Amino acid sequence: MSDSCELTLDDVREVLRSRTSSGVLRNGSHDKPWADDAQCEMCVRELRSLACGLPWGDHPDGPSMSNTDRICIGINDARWSSDAVRTKYCLPLALLTEAKAPAEWLDLVLAGYIREILPILLRANAANPLNAKHKDELESAAKACEESPEGADLAARADLAALANLADLADLAARAARAARADLAARAARADLADLADLADLADLADLAARAALAALASDKILSGVVKIVLTAHGRADLVVEWDDD
To answer: Rounded CA gap, 53 and 60, in Å?
Structure first.
């Protein structure tokens, strides 16, 4: 693993500036540079590989992907509004390595998602006039997520294998949030919200909340919140780029 590679934000910014023509992170996987000084495109984990002098790839933590690699790639590849915004919030993820993460970091990510992201989605749906008859139920579910002590009681019942898909859920919410098409709004209005009363089924709750997200909800804000949760769980709250409403 790349635990011996100590990087700073200035280090990775300089690599991104000098080795790309655009100076931004891109989604997806990218071809290996044809020469040691050649320009190329890269995602946040390919950036770490290059900055650390490791073999080119999107799993700098070792020969196979670590949980850190998987989640960081999922967030990087989510549908940000632009590559510039993706880079602004995701760049600190290049400094993370599995070997230096706290043992319980996956639990902390899940707890943070329950406590901070789901309530946003649930309240967005509660504010939708089309969901008026479910308003109280949605608000109750949001409060239950927020008031769970560190999310521990919910996290204990959740499948931790689903953590790799947290970024996918955020991306799904973001796409639903941006879409303004009437047919999507109609599908959201018809969503079966009965399962919201059963908070034990986290996967269904998260998926339902994401599918029914309001078109006006800002996708970048959701995704930047997920980045903050991952950095904080890794013990790197100092790297968080706070959301800027402007």
So the answer is: 10
Using an 8 Å Cβ cutoff, are 203 and 155 in contact?
A: no
CA dihedral 65, 58, 218, 116 (to 10 degrees): 30
Buried b (16+ CB within 10 A) or exposed e, 147-162: ebeebeebbeebeeee
The whole-angstrom separation of Cα 65 and Cα 199 is 31
**pLDDT tens for each residue of 54-66:** 999 999 999 998 9
- What is the 8-class DSSP label of residue 34? S
pLDDT in tens, 64-110: 989 899 889 988 988 788 899 999 999 999 999 999 999 888 878 87
Residue of 201, 209, 196 whose CA lies nearest to 128: 209
Under 8 Å between Cβ of 209 and 244: no
Which position has the token pair 């970048």? 220
Question: Nearest Cα to 20, choosing from 42, 36, 43?
Answer: 42
| C-alpha dihedral (192, 197, 203, 205), degrees to nearest 10 | 50
Cα 46 to Cα 59: distance, rounded to the nearest angstrom: 7
Given a contact cutoff of 8 angstroms between Cβ atoms, the answer to whether 175 and 219 are in contact is yes
Q: What is the pTM of this model?
A: 0.75
96 residue type, one letter: L
